[in-house]
C-alpha cells in the first residue's frame, strides 16, 4: 500500500507540472492516476 501511495503522489506531481503547457501529455499520466485512485478507494468499506 505505501508503494501505491508514493506512485499516486509521483503521478500527481507530474500532472501538475505538465497540465499548464502540455495538457495532452498530462492526460497520459491522468489516466493511470484515476485507475490507482479507484483501486485505493475500493479497499475501504462504508460500514
How would you describe this protein?
Pfam families: FUSC_2. It is a multi-pass membrane protein. Its main location: membrane. The protein has 47 residues and is mainly alpha-helical. The chain has one domain. The chain is 79% helix and 0% strand. It has 2 helices and no strands. The longest helix is centred in the C-terminal third of the chain and has 20 residues, at 23-42. The chain is elongated. The mean pLDDT is 82.
Counted up, domains total: 1
Whole-angstrom Rg? 12 Å
Biggest β-sheet strands, sense, barrel: none
Order of helices and strands: HH
Helical fraction: over 70%
Q: What separation lies between the terminal Cα atoms?
A: 21 Å
Provide the β-strand percentage band: under 5%
Please, how many helices?
Answer: 2
- Look at the helices and sheets and give the structural class: mainly alpha
Global geometry: elongated
Overall pLDDT confidence: 82
Low-confidence segments: none
E-strand count: 0
Amino acid at each position: 500500500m505505501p508503494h501505491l501511495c508514493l506512485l499516486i503522489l509521483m503521478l500527481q506531481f507530474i500532472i501538475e507540472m505538465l497540465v499548464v503547457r502540455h495538457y495532452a501529455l498530462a492526460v497520459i499520466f491522468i489516466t493511470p492516476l484515476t485507475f490507482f485512485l479507484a483501486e485505493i478507494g475500493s479497499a475501504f468499506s462504508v460500514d
